Amino acid sequence: MYGFEALTFNIHGGYLEAIVRGYRSGLLTAADYNNLCQCETLDDIKMHLSATEYGSYLQNEPSPLHTTTIVEKCTLKLVDEYKHMLAQATEPLSTFLEYITYGHMIDNVVLIVTGTLHERDVQELLEKCHPLGMFDSIATLAVAQNMRELYRLVLVDTPLAPYFSECITSEDLDDMNIEIMRNTLYKAYLEDFYRFCKTLGGATAEIMSDLLAFEADRRAVNITINSIGTELTRDDRRKLYSNFGLLYPYGHEELAVCEDIDQVRAAMEKYPPYQSIFSKLSYGESQMLDKAFYEEEVKRLCLAFEQQFHYGVFFAYMRLREQEIRNLMWISECVAQNQKSRVHDSVVFIF
Amino acid sequence: MQSSENGVESRNEVAEGEQHILNFLDSVDSYLILMDSLSSALRQGWLELASARHSMGASRVNCALFDLKSHHASTTVQVNNDLPHFKLCKWASSDDPEKYSEEGKFEEDELFQNKSDGPRHRHQELQEKRTEEGGASPVGTDNQIQKLFLQAQKERFKTLSMFGTLVSPKLRATQLSFETALEMLVEISNTRASLLHAYDQVQKDRTNPK
């Protein structure tokens, strides 16, 4: 019954909730970002990060640094923290934590399949995979010629198997099929995660429903904008939208027929939470839309920590760390390219 | 009588020499403007690429996705003995062996004039000036122009599809920036050839004073 988690949550989840709240306090602050934005070189960034929790991960990296090295090492820290929490978790928290990584698993599958289609070396592709999305048989993805083989040879034994039912065909893999596969898998994953959170009930269901609904809505907008002017038909576009969220179903009907960014704006401004996002953009512009969505996401993720005794804090922490890594990537790129005037275009402050 | 004719001839020769110097200085000015524009276009392109990576994620925009299968070049450069030495043929259709003409490329550039920033605007002023001097004029009806534009868009999407078919508008903007930089490179090559030609003229006038 909702409201009585305080009686039993700490028995199995209390230790890890304390751990994740401790991790949260290590997130970079606005003062840290101000220092980083004033750096002249990547070595300066490394020096500033040495005073943070990333210090031990970057200290042994030789100069000259590269932006991808900074991102890789910061990601390693996130992976270590995640593995520590997963090792300590019991059901159903362990399943919840595994759900968080399925998105990365889908990205890795698509990366391997796309790279193989382009005749790239599998080892090179494996190095580019996200560590949170790795699984044992990932390297054997390279032998599949179509989705049916992909499923039968490799993915049937992975957590992604249930998501393939909607996209198994015998058509050979090409760029369009892979894109549709990516989005169909992600849609199935989000819906499955949503249903799982609902079964957990209580504060977890309430908070995670809001966060996942926002994710589904943002995906719908991105799919719409990215498919404008492409060969993707309106019906195919509509099929890629998730079957939940604030925009479901009427907002999706409007987004499916949008032909430019202004029509997307007109469809989204009917929903008050998204009206505030689009009010920050000028007409015809979509460049700052990503930042506007990230800012809204960060606001909702931070609010998840205001309540105790639910699993949403774990999801929120992982997403906030990923946002922090994106910030560090952007700052590093601006410093490396000597474009510091543009650094505030994409940095989203968390605190 | 003969002395006045000689005077007229020498004045003409001096004027011709001064014209050669002016041509040389104009070429140097054009060259420097184009180099500055190229630097700006490349800076913008690299930052837009970083922005696309930030938006789409590192797994979707990375060098491991480049297509190593053999395929037709979508853009080629023709080398001529006459000026201009280099002609860029953009977005040749992989389905249709007939390539774009330079006039077709010019029409497409007109359609992109709404993408304006300082260096691009200066580059277009230079290109229009060269077109006026060369006497070339836009050809084709509106339908032809639209057809060329759609063909170019189709080839652009096909090239970008190595990163996926649903890519962020930021990645498309990156593609346009580097496409602009490629045009500028060809323009710089032609301007450099003109500059060297003008320099040769000036040197000839200096060594053989008439």
UniProtKB/TrEMBL annotation, chain A:
Gene3D superfamilies of this UniProt entry? ATP synthase (C/AC39) subunit, domain 3, V-type ATP synthase subunit C domain
GO CC terms in record: proton-transporting V-type ATPase, V0 domain; vacuolar membrane
Q: Which domain of life is it from?
A: Eukaryota
Matching SUPFAM superfamilies = V-type ATP synthase subunit C
Gene source species: Sesamum indicum
- For this UniProt record, give its keywords in alphabetical order, as a comma-separated list: Hydrogen ion transport, Ion transport, Transport
Cited PANTHER family: VACUOLAR ATP SYNTHASE SUBUNIT AC39
Protein family (similarity comment): Belongs to the V-ATPase V0D/AC39 subunit family.
Topology in membrane? Peripheral membrane protein
Whichever gene encodes this chain, its name is: LOC105167671
Name its cellular compartments: Vacuole membrane
Q: Which InterPro entries does its entry note?
A: ATPase_csu/dsu_sf, ATPase_V0-cplx_csu/dsu, ATPase_V0-cplx_dsu, V-type_ATPase_csu/dsu, V-type_ATPase_csu/dsu_dom_3
Protein name (record): V-type proton ATPase subunit
Q: Does the keyword Transport apply?
A: yes
Coarse class of the protein's main subcellular location: membrane
Automatic annotation (TrEMBL), chain B:
Name one process (GO BP) from the record: vacuolar proton-transporting V-type ATPase complex assembly
Give a GO molecular function annotation for the protein.
Answer: unfolded protein binding
Which stretches are tagged as biased composition: Basic and acidic residues?
Answer: 124-133
> Record's superkingdom?
Eukaryota
Q: Which InterPro entries match?
A: Vma22/CCDC115 (IPR040357)
Quick one: where's region Disordered?
99-142
- Provide the protein name: Vacuolar ATPase assembly protein VMA22
Gene it is expressed from: LOC105158879
